[in-house]
């Protein structure tokens, strides 16, 4: 059933399912549907809500076990796509978590198509860009943006902000001289947007089904999707052993550096957070969503309490030369109200200059994407790790071992043979594909991909 919808739609449905599955057990029950409609505060009489819930359970619960699995959840959206019940259901989900639906029409469907986007993401990304490009004179025509409006979707329309954000995430990806900044016309805007898309692809973003026209028109779900990839790449750039050898402090008993190198940035970030939580005497977390918002074995809400301990652990202690001590006020830790406690925590994060990406509501609701970005930003500014004195890293040996056993692009021997580089670059130029690359660095990324194909 799920195979009939796109991967993007499936991910949206998975997010929606998580918003309804309040206890996180992988199933939806009737009481969770009741809570969903109650929290959404839709202008509907009670009997109508009961009818909808009854219909959803009857139509969705295929195996009649009084609960709806994810596959059954997908079936609801497919089989009841144009019905009033399905529309009410989608509206309830959208209203619950600040998700806005953007309607459209499709030649293939009289019912039209609908894409949703998160107000929280729009707010977070707009604020992040406002801060990151605040001093950039080339962006003064669109900054600062009002994060509560659609300014963000209009700001990316000429491609300049996108190019700047790409360079912020991976410096020198784009030669600034190739960005059209003055006397912008429809033609130069198209050039900027193509430049941004090609460059985003070069640094690792997936830009399939995203065109220059989509960005120029500011299609919310596509703009947010691309921006998240660009921002995430920048946030994760230093969360790897080769860029930060102090990560060796996260090694566990019996592990080797090779084991640590196999971890993804997300896994390293989670291990880093748990490293500091353990040092604080606090229980570990398994993710940046459910474990932030839900309860642990003692039935004690963790959410911002875990963050309080993390902030207290990484805050500068004034022990290094030129370092000012910053004391975290833990008094808000005992606040019983979840939102108020989260706000107290964010006030302390602000003292570290790290109040980005999340609001108190995002913390309490356990927004996985924004909480991940929040923690990644904490790591980048205050890793609070010290490389073990007895841990000398032999990169030649490590990379050699990697090349011998793992077939991946990182295994390519350095430096690349000059003759081979000249041959590949010459071939690209002859085939008129060099225009797809914005800098020599981007071209070398392509060379590395070709090399990985040859070696692997």
TrEMBL record:
Compartment(s): Cytoplasm
CDD domains: CH_PLS_rpt1, EFh
Domain EF-hand: 8-43, 48-83
Name under which the protein is recorded: Plastin-3
GO CC annotation, single: actin filament bundle
UniProt-listed Pfam families: CH, EF-hand_7
Organism expressing this protein natively: Sinocyclocheilus grahami
Keyword Iron: no
Family matches, as InterPro entries: Actinin_actin-bd_CS (IPR001589), CH_dom (IPR001715), CH_dom_sf (IPR036872), EF-hand-dom_pair (IPR011992), EF_Hand_1_Ca_BS (IPR018247), EF_hand_dom (IPR002048), Fimbrin/Plastin (IPR039959)
Alphabetized GO MF terms: actin filament binding; calcium ion binding
Function noted in UniProt: Actin-bundling protein.
GO biological process assignments: actin filament bundle assembly; actin filament network formation
